[in-house]
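FORM 7B: Structural annotation worksheet

SECTION A. Query
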Amino acid sequence: MKKLLDKIKGRVQPSKSYTPLEINNNIEEISSIKQFKMLHVCGQGTFSSVYKAEWTERGIIVAAKKVLALTTNEREILDRLKNEHIIETYGTILQSPDHYIIMEYAAGGSLYNYLRSRNGDRLTSEHFYRWTEHATEAVRYLGSIHIAHRDIKSPNYLITENQLKLCDFGTAKFSKKGTSMTSQEKGSAAWMAPEMIRDRLASEKSDVYSLGVVIWELFTGGIPHAGADNHYQIMWLVAVNGVRPTIPEDCPAPLRQLMKDCWEEDRYSRPTAEDLLQKIRTKSLGLPLFV
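SECTION B. Predicted structure
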């Protein structure tokens, strides 16, 4: 156990209106960030900052994500993505020192922040089913083109026109059999599958584990592993003690079982996102349909 804990700590064109589908048939190589008027900061992380910006030549609002670098792998992945529940990428700026990803702007912010704003009030059943379907469809789509996102979590689901859309593909990889993670690609502890913690191995089934945590959030409105002191403790609880988010007693049995299936220790025993979608779309999770 000490060896595992040591491992965990050591990782430590013309002017007109464009719709998203019109813009992103192919990701554009944009010459300069000067084409954009920065409005305000939407969010900041260790390696990136996201700005709300106006693309002045096109008269639309976008999100401009400033990154340290854009790898060939990330660019290839962004080029492949085309799904209504994936945030659209319009273009990239690769002129040093400016490296930006220009994306669809999500005015509703993140799912994580939205749930916090509700102060514990649960979503209606209709709302839960709709957003759970959106979140799951994004993971299903990625699996269908053999991409492991490796950082599925509520802060990476954005709200636009009452839809959930998945974003942030900085740690994503093409993978048919699973892919290792470098020490810089840590994921987020509260959503990480045990094999990501122990073996630094991520796969489409690891994404399903993380999706199960997001579904738990959508049902409860809570923060996963909120009682833990820090992310190292969460990793220890998940990878060593087999702890999972606490499912409320009033959770319907079919939904409870779906979450538990997503959190199976053996990743090969977890369902596919396609399996999950069938239950969600047929509203077979035991929730009343008009609440």
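SECTION C. Observations
The chain is about 35% helix and 20% strand. Residues 7-25 have pLDDT under 50 and may be disordered.

SECTION D. Sign-off
Analyst initials: ____
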